[in-house]
Amino acid sequence: MKSNVETAEVAQPYAQALMSIAQSQNLTEEFGEDARALLNLLKNSAPLQNLIDNPFIQPEKKKAVITQILGDGANQYLRRFLQLLVDKRRIFFLEQILQQYLALLRQLNQTVLAEVTSAVPLTEAQQQAVKDKVLSITNARQVELEIKTDRDLIGGLIIKVGSQVIDASLRGQLRRLSLRLSSS
């Protein structure tokens, strides 16, 4: 089981190293796209996650799978970095390293991450309205949305930016009303 503190301590230097490589080669955005794609793949593929997490699978097999996943058109620096993670037995932390790389990329680009939970999928116009609202609150240059749906909200949405939470959900309004009524 991975501890959050230990994971952060291990993942941070590797994420910074990946950022350093990306900056030296002017590939920060390309690496960001690859990191998002790999995170999505890890999230949606239990067999791949199991392969990466299993310490008994031979490193050469892990490298072969990584090479196959990346394909021939993959960036050689990223491929070598991932192979280094396998050699150093740190591929176990790949998800956290990629997440921290994306956090460093957002910091570099003065972009904030807004985690949006809505009762129903948001339209493009609604997503743009959320971005505009977050931009006005944070004074960032750009906003990256991470959107989830939760039918239990009944209606509305919850926006989380860093430690700030804006609860504009119907469930949140009902909860606040209930608290007011019970305290009266």
Automatic annotation (TrEMBL):
Q: Which GO terms describe its cellular component?
A: plasma membrane-derived thylakoid membrane; proton-transporting ATP synthase complex
Which source organism does the UniProt entry give?
Answer: Tolypothrix tenuis PCC 7101
Thylakoid as a keyword of this entry, yes or no, is yes
The alphabetical list of record keywords is: ATP synthesis, CF(1), Hydrogen ion transport, Ion transport, Membrane, Thylakoid, Transport
Give compartment(s): Cellular thylakoid membrane; Membrane
Q: Would you tell me the protein name for this molecule?
A: ATP synthase subunit delta
Q: Which HAMAP family match?
A: ATP_synth_delta_bact (MF_01416)
Bilayer disposition of the protein:
Peripheral membrane protein
User: Function of this protein?
Assistant: This protein is part of the stalk that links CF(0) to CF(1). It either transmits conformational changes from CF(0) to CF(1) or is implicated in proton conduction.
Primary localization class, coarse: membrane
- SUPFAM superfamilies for this protein: N-terminal domain of the delta subunit of the F1F0-ATP synthase (SSF47928)
Membership in a protein family: Belongs to the ATPase delta chain family.
**Gene Ontology molecular function, alphabetical:** proton-transporting ATP synthase activity, rotational mechanism
What domain of life does the native source organism fall in?
Bacteria
